[in-house]
From TrEMBL:
Homodimer. Residues 439-552 are annotated as: Regulatory domain. This is 2-isopropylmalate synthase. Belongs to the alpha-IPM synthase/homocitrate synthase family. LeuA type 2 subfamily. It catalyses: 3-methyl-2-oxobutanoate + acetyl-CoA + H2O = (2S)-2-isopropylmalate + CoA + H(+). PROSITE patterns: AIPM_HOMOCIT_SYNTH_1, AIPM_HOMOCIT_SYNTH_2, PYR_CT. It holds the Pfam family HMGL-like. One of its GO terms (cellular component) is cytoplasm. It comes from Sphingomonas pseudosanguinis. Its EC number is 2.3.3.13. The gene is leuA.
């Protein structure tokens, strides 16, 4: 890299728009959406989709709710042409969906595009030619007048070919390709010339697509360009301003959002951001960003995993685990402090009297996208007690007291350090069983027991295996737990002092289990924990005391 990059690169010029309005606006409704997965997305693939994959992708786009779908570049070859004409011939296009095709401004390509749409109920033909200085000078060697004339001639052919097919309701789209690096006045000039040919009206508007063909500036500059264009294009009520952003600088989504705030009506992009080079605008991210602000995006992404799996299959491209909203890890916390905040957030959410979502670290409810809460908190060597407790509660229904959470967390930390990997629910439960529940070699094993007495004076008589030998032990106390502790103290067991006791049901109904937790102190000052599980809460508490005694 250069120490002084200014010797090679120039900063992008800003737009003179001192009274810009877009910074004070918010997005309050969904734009029109166009999916270009089957065109821009497909042409960017190492192995373009075959007919089966194209059909599967088209069906997904319809299911998600896309009403405008760019289905291909019919003049590119037989695969594209046959797929597009097949959609029409096989009547696969729902009545509320309009397909779109792309063509360069050349007579033979435009005519071929119309041929692919024979019999369509309605369709959009998308015409484009590049207009920026670099393309005029380097690629075409043309003047501004010559480039404008390419657009005008193409528009005339669109008009004439549509007139030959009056049974189709035709709409047109024009893109001054490389708009974001072109002179704004020239982009308006070319678009106005196209409008002069096609004669759009408010009832039958022309779509003017303003692409950031290559993203070369910050998204606020693009927003300025869109607002300036909207102010200066003639007959604004007869055009639909559409955005087509790319992600070369990593801000394709932001540019689209600011462009909508700047007055755009329509957004083009791909599901999960596939597209040339670094990709197109990710429609999923833009739509769900709106959703988290309380705006209905008019797209159904309630089964995000189906979207991910279909896109992955059709494009043969992996979806990064950190992809917003859709990645495998976007709703997952490994950090202990994050896990604790999320766990408390879910508890607070359950106690709310309204449906307002407010959970730390989760800008959206995973359930809205068809994701479960089980994967929200996962455990590795970075995790804390809250994360471990969450997994145990979600997997087994145990609500561990806080100090027991901390005690077990130390065991889990040792397991994670020893294995150097993520611990799953089975690993954690196995560690919990080995630490607190009955195991081979325990000093105290409950066989049977009975209790008697009244409130304030209880007697425990139990058959307990002690050091491998079954014995009858008994003790008295002011409750069942204290009488069990007395029975142990009167034999060979430890003399425990109970610090804390908790219990709860696991599940509901006659078959529900109970869990009991004991925190106790030994004569030498050590703190030990015990856990008991049983269908009877009293028996669970006895098992919890013996569990603590086994660890004393």
């Amino acid at each position: 890299m250069l120490r002084d990059p200014s010797t090679k690169y120039r900063p992008f010029p800003t737009i003179a728009l001192p009274d810009r309005q877009w910074p004070n606006r918010t997005i309050t409704k969904a734009p029109r959406w166009l999916s270009t997965d089957l065109r821009d997305g497909n042409q960017a693939l190492i192995d373009p989709m075959d007919a089966e994959k194209k059909t599967r992708m088209f069906d997904l786009l319809v299911k998600v709710g896309l009403k405008e779908i760019e289905v291909g570049f019919p003049s590119a070859g037989a695969t594209e042409f046959d797929f597009i004409s097949g959609l029409i011939r096989e009547d696969r296009i729902p009545e509320d969906v309009t397909i779109q095709v792309l063509t360069q401004s050349r007579r033979d390509l435009i005519e071929r595009s119309f041929e692919s749409l024979e019999g369509a109920r309605t369709a959009i033909v998308h015409l484009y030619n590049a207009v920026s200085p670099a393309w005029r000078k380097i690629v075409f060697g043309m003047t501004r007048d010559e480039v404008r004339q390419i657009a005008v001639e193409g528009a005339k052919i669109l008009r004439d070919e549509a007139a030959k097919r009056p049974n189709t309701d035709w709409f047109f789209e024009y893109s001054p390709e490389t708009f974001s690096t072109a002179e704004l006045d020239f982009s308006v000039e070319v678009c106005a010339a196209v409008m002069d040919v096609l004669k759009p009206t408010p009832d039958h508007p022309l779509i003017l697509n303003l692409p950031a063909t290559v993203e070369c500036a910050t998204p606020n500059v693009y927003a300025d360009q869109i607002e300036w264009f909207g102010r200066n294009i003639p007959n604004r009520d007869s055009v639909v301003i559409s955005l087509h952003t790319h992600n070369d600088r990593g801000t394709g989504v932001a540019a689209a959002e600011l462009g909508v705030m700047a007055g755009a009506d329509r957004v083009e992009g791909c599901l999960l951001g596939n597209g040339e080079r670094t990709g197109n605008c990710d429609l999923v991210t833009v739509a769900l960003n709106m959703y988290t602000q309380g705006v209905d995006p008019k797209l159904d992404l309630s089964d995000i995993d189906e979207v991910v799996n279909t896109v992955n299959y059709c494009t043969n491209l992996p979806v990064h685990p950190r992809t917003p909203y859709a990645g495998d890890l976007v709703f997952t916390a490994f950090s202990g402090s994050h896990q604790d905040a999320i766990k408390k957030g879910f508890a607070a959410q359950a106690a709310r009297n309204d449906d307002l979502w407010e959970v730390p670290y989760l800008p959206i409810d995973p359930a809205d996208l068809g994701r479960s809460y089980e994967a929200v908190i996962r455990v590795n060597s970075q995790s804390g007690k809250g994360g471990v407790a969450w997994v145990i509660e979600q997997d087994k229904g145990l609500k561990l007291p806080k100090r027991l959470q901390a005690d077990f967390s130390r065991h889990v930390q040792a397991m994670a350090d020893a294995t150097s990997r993520e611990l799953n629910a089975a690993d954690i439960w196995g560690g919990f069983e080995a630490t607190y529940l009955p195991r081979e070699g325990d000093r105290f094993v409950l066989r049977d027991y009975e209790e008697s007495g009244s409130t304030g004076q209880r007697t425990f008589i139990g058959r307990v295996q002690v050091d491998g030998e079954e014995r009858s032990i008994s003790g008295r106390g002011n409750g069942l737990i204290s009488s069990v502790i007395a029975a142990l103290a009167d034999t060979t067991g430890p003399n425990l002092e109970v610090i804390d006791y908790n219990e709860h049901a696991i599940g509901h109904g006659a078959d529900a289990q109970a869990a009991a937790y004991v925190e106790a102190r030994t004569p030498d000052g050590r703190v030990v924990f015990g856990v008991g599980l049983d269908t009877d809460i009293a028996t669970a508490s006895v098992r919890a005391v013996l569990s603590a005694a086994n660890r004393a």
